[in-house]
Amino acid sequence: MIARCGAHSLHPEWLKGRVPEWDLVLCPFQSVDMQGHTGQMVPGHKWDGLYRFLTEWDGWKQYDYICFPDDDLRATAETWNRFFATCKQYNAKLAAPALTRVFL
Fold this sequence. Notes:
Blueprint: E1 2-3, E2 25-26, E3 38-39, H1 46-56, H2 77-89
Parallel strand pairs: 1-2, 2-3
Protein name: CAZy families CBM47 protein
């Protein structure tokens, strides 16, 4: 999970509840408390910053799935655990989280 985040990001909530079965990497566009997470600040727009980050850090290549969630999503570790489990269950090549199961 690579969060392009800012000072008011909800990403700390993503780690609450159950133990995350995924890693959180931060790519903030402004100064934030990294709280011990891997990552680096890259000023600029979302996709430009992610492109720059991913070309400079190749750690993302070790993962089966990569997620670029918006930092204003309200979710818990359990929510993201289910999302990644669903991706694996369906052998997803591309996926986006949905608000209800009707989109499966």
